[in-house]
Amino acid sequence: MIIAIPSLALAEPLLVNVHEVCAELGWEVRTGSLDECGKMLLANSVDMALTSPLGYGRGVGKVDYRLIPGPCIALEDYTNAYGIWFPDGGKGLATYSSSEPGSFPAHAGRMVMAEKFDVVLTEAPSKSIGDCVIDAVGNTQPPAMDLGEEWFDLVESPLPIAVWVVRVDAEAIDVDKSVLRFADQRLLERHVSEVVPSTSDRMPREGKVLYRWTSDIEEGLDASLHTMFYHQLLPEIPAIKLYGKD
User: Fold this and answer.
1) Pairing of strands 189-193, 206-212
2) Which of 69, 47, 57 is nearest to 238 (CA)?
3) Dihedral of the CA atoms 120, 80, 36, 110 (nearest 10)?
4) What are phi and psi of 50, to 5 degrees?
């Protein structure tokens, strides 16, 4: 087995034991972005990958995939993980930029802007800053909009960021147990509370980063696949096929 894992800080709780377990199983590990992990899976360069809903959706009509209903990453309400900034104060919104413009979070931000505010964004020219910046939250100024919060407000379901996907034609046995061994068994979710000044008269926003598959996450994944189809990111709506069940 060859697997692909993302170089993503948010995914670290799902990968704390990945190298030790893969060494024991004799599996090869390759690393890339979430988007690259999905592309490696589609190209049959790897048998299994931790990738985004877009990475799963790209296989529709081309490859038979199964989702592993176990360790995953999803944002429920305010999580301070991904955000949307407006460098020019939100004037004349037409373009967006991102450190990973083709990534699922960037597209999710675009879809939020279109669905909630009727603002259609196209990618800004290379190396230029768009009217809207959609990216992971770092040490810069807080974003004007929290992506997890905006998505939850839009569809009333968590925003899946990363899920384990395996090819049906892979010689995969008990991969659901293996990905569970990769992860921190103690962490099912992480509560997030906004830091607000002590002088503020408003309550902090709150939410959760979810690290285990639930029916709510499945609903969020279904919503993301339907929305990507509507915005022409996918040629058709993929069925959610679960490993060991479908």
Assistant:
1) antiparallel
2) 57
3) 0
4) -90, 110
